[in-house]
Amino acid sequence: MKHNYDVFNGDADGICALHQLRMAYPKPGAKLITGVKRDIKLLDRLTGVENSEITVFDISLDSNRGSLEELLATGNSITYFDHHYAGDLPSSPDLTTNIHQDPEICTSLIVDRLLGGRFRSWAIVGAYGDNLHQSALKLAKELNLGEADLEKLREIGELFNYNGYGKSTEDLYFHPADLYNGLSGFTDPLEFRHQSPDLAKLRQGFNDDMTKARRLSPFRESGAGVVYRLPGESWCRRVAGVFGNEKARDNETQAHALLVDNGDNTMMASIRAPLANRQGADVLCRAFPTGGGRPAAAGINKLPAEMMDEFLKKFKEVF
Asked: What's the pTM value of the predicted model, to 2 decimals?
């Protein structure tokens, strides 16, 4: 008997992509493999798995290449949905890829295309969570959604994304697997919003954290963009992504970087390319150890303190 594994990024996009596919093609009992948004090498957790069906959502194939090749060599059938840098794709009859790296697309939108828009409202939530507001609006027009409902979908996406940021799951309000399980049975995200007690808790936490973040002054400013530096506190780690997204929307022609102290002489970096030109974030981050992501948004898990000057220089060069 084959086992099933669903492997997904713990942010809005990963959760909404998985939710759409499993509403269309249920796999009861599938084991969930997930974590905080920055925990992307999730296939490492499947060491020793054989002859199973594995579905992967919203984590870079290139970052998981070694484990992916090992899993393909041990009789596993793998389906891969993603929008991050992939590099060369392994050649295997047991690997099916749905990978598109356009900066205006996310994994939820890739699954939406596969399903012909069957659960499009959830795809819109995922797009909002990934700060793809224009892509979300384009889909919303096809559903004739009013402004009030759109605002509700945006809030769900942003709150899900907010919940994914942290050094570990202890920083989060909800483990991403629990948040995903809370969606069970909800084909309509508006109904979920109306009934879920989880969103009320996330909303309060989001408002408290963002109030603190909005009081911050920039650490560095230049023609290329703005850099913020935050202390190593849980609220700073939680807010890094959503605050970066907000600043990017406030000034669409500039890049933004948020640096959070890891407490070990390294910084966690969260980068947003200008919304007017969603390019370069991945180039910047891949120039440093533990860096990766996509052209519009990327990050570095552990930027050594001694590389700060080099990072600031590279930030100006790229943007």
From this structure: 0.90
